[in-house]
Design a protein that fits this description.
It contains four helices and eight strands; from the N terminus they run αβαβββαββββα. The N terminus is likely disordered. With 232 residues, the chain is α+β, with helices and mostly antiparallel strands. The chain is globular, with a radius of gyration of 30 Å. Strands 1, 2, 3, 4, 5, 6, 7 and 8 form an eight-stranded antiparallel beta sheet that branches. Helix 2 crosses helix 4.
Length: 232
């Protein structure tokens, strides 16, 4: 009889233990499953809100910049010096303060915009680094968009840098492209180089697309030559 009572007591403990383990485990699973989407949705909403705020701020700055009291300086001497010895056929259109250079190679083509903006009378309420970064990104986006059929996914390398010291600053951003459709490969390069010195902002922004990798290299070297001739 004593043995029967002991076995009964042990059975009760085991059953109670199993019963106590199972419900909390199920409850924990339910809690994790229902809570995760709520956290994700909140984080997503916050991220979208931040992006929207930054976009509004950026758009506001760009509008204020071009609506401010700015004037364009002549960049013909810079263009002439940098284009010396270039292997590309080119046409230069100087209008509205911007030198637009159309380039043509044996297997591709591209363009370079060169401009210099005098900010001494603009009274923009932004620091130098902010001006450089946002205007640099603005021109880079516009220039890169001129490579037809190319998206950010086609960039095989990219670089972005902004530096500022006392009264001058420099911005540089570039990306290389290599895209194949199985039959042919396109090689591209786009770069924006901007320097703010003594209230004058000089911008050189160009893009080139070719089926010849060597032409892309020649264009990259041409952009480097422009950078060498911009006073910093």
């Amino acid at each position: 009889m004593k043995n029967i009572l002991i076995l009964a007591a042990l059975s009760a403990v085991i059953l109670t233990g199993c019963g106590n383990i199972s419900p909390p485990f199920k409850a924990e699973q339910t809690t994790v499953t229902t809570a995760a989407p709520t956290v994700s949705a909140a984080a997503s909403s916050e991220a979208e809100s931040t992006v929207d705020e930054e976009q509004v701020k950026y758009d506001t700055f760009i509008a204020e910049f071009f609506d401010s009291n700015i004037c364009f300086s002549d960049t013909s001497a810079l263009v002439t010096e940098a284009m010396k010895g270039s292997s590309f056929e080119n046409e230069i259109d100087n209008s509205n303060g911007v030198n637009k250079i159309t380039l043509k190679g044996s297997n591709g083509g591209g363009m370079i915009d060169v401009l210099c903006v005098d900010l001494s009378q603009s009274n923009l309420d932004y620091d130098m680094k902010y001006i450089l970064e946002n205007l640099g990104d603005h021109y880079f986006s516009q220039t890169a968009a001129q490579m037809n059929g190319i998206t950010e996914d086609d960039f095989v390398s990219s670089y972005r840098m902004t530096s500022s010291v006392v009264s001058k600053g420099k911005y540089q951003r570039y990306g290389s492209v290599q895209k194949s459709d199985g039959m042919a490969t396109q090689f591209g390069y786009t770069e924006t180089y901007a320097v703010l010195n003594e209230n004058k902002l000089t911008v050189v922004s160009g893009a080139f697309l070719s089926s010849d990798m060597m032409e892309r290299q020649s264009f990259s070297q041409l952009m480097s030559k422009f950078a060498e001739n911009v006073k910093y």
